[in-house]
Amino acid sequence: MSVSRADILNLVQTQLGDILEKAPSDITEDATFADLGADSLALIELVEALEESLASEAEGFHIDDEDLEDLVSVRLAVDYVAAKLQAA
What we know:
Largest sheet: none
Radius of gyration: 12 Å
Helix content: 55-70%
Number of domains: 1
Order of helices and strands: HHHHH
């Protein structure tokens, strides 16, 4: 089973919603993490949740720490994860 971009967006919205205590529907693709009030700790939690959730799709799926600083919005994070899964 492959994961669609829409699946990844939904996963990011759901996980980030849990972490930030916001409704997933309030987390738009255009939102930056700063707009959402997500600090570096929240982003680390998001990365861990995504890595755990996607491990079955791509063995050893990992988001590199040095890439994290470039992922400043929901859209960039979704695009990054989609590209990593496609390359796996």
